Amino acid sequence: MDITTIYWIVLGLMGIGVIGAIIPGLPGSSIILVAILIWSIATDFAGIGLPMILIFAVLILSAGVEYLALYFGLKQSNASKWSQYGAIAGMVLGFFGLLPALPIGGPLIGVLVGAVLGAFIGEYLYRSNLDYDARVKQAFKASTGIVIASIIGNIIEALLAALAVAIFIYSTWSFVFIN
Question: What does the pLDDT read at residue 162?
Fold first, then answer.
């Protein structure tokens, strides 16, 4: 297989990785790292230098951004850890289709709906010392905070993943098409 074909395959994987950074539950940064590994093996690790180190730093930062966004979302909405655990459990249940069947969207919608329901239920159970109205209000606030933080985190993660791909293209384009 020639280097140009490998390059386009690697860029396709990276595009999937950027999409994976947007969609909750998909390993966007990991797919980009696998694509870089494939490229590095195909080129006998030629050109591994400052641009690749910068790409790794950006991808590590993007992995941490989602967790920081969730942390700040929890803090802003005064949510408990139970909301976060509920959101994670809901995402898993939604992804594997263990929530009631959804007419459209399948696992992706299941992940989003599951996270909201899981955060709501987790916070509702944690706030058992409050009366019903206060529990519902706090649970709704917590689930909304987690969802907004998750969306913001995913957008930032996708932008950082796109930046990593742009750095890769900038640093490797001449190797493939000018030589």
Answer: 92
Q: What is the pLDDT of residue 99?
A: 56
Q: Where are the beta strands (DSSP E) in the chain?
A: none
Cβ-based burial of 151 (10 A; exposed 0-12, middle 13-18, buried ≥19): middle
CA distance to 40, 50, 92, per residue, from 64 (Å): 25, 21, 20
How far is the C-alpha of 26 from the C-alpha of 6, rounded, in Å? 23
Cα 36 from Cα 48, distance rounded (Å)? 10
Give backbone dihedrals phi and psi of 4, rounded to 5 degrees, phi first.
-65, -40
Q: How far apart are CA 45 and CA 127, in angstroms?
A: 54
Q: What is the mean pLDDT of residues 112-133?
A: 89
E strand or H helix at 138, and its extent?
A: helix 132-177
The model's pTM: 0.75
Q: How many domains does the chain have?
A: 1
Residues 6+ apart with CB under 8 A from 82: 122, 123, 125, 126
User: Which domain covers residue 75, as residue numbers?
Assistant: 3-177
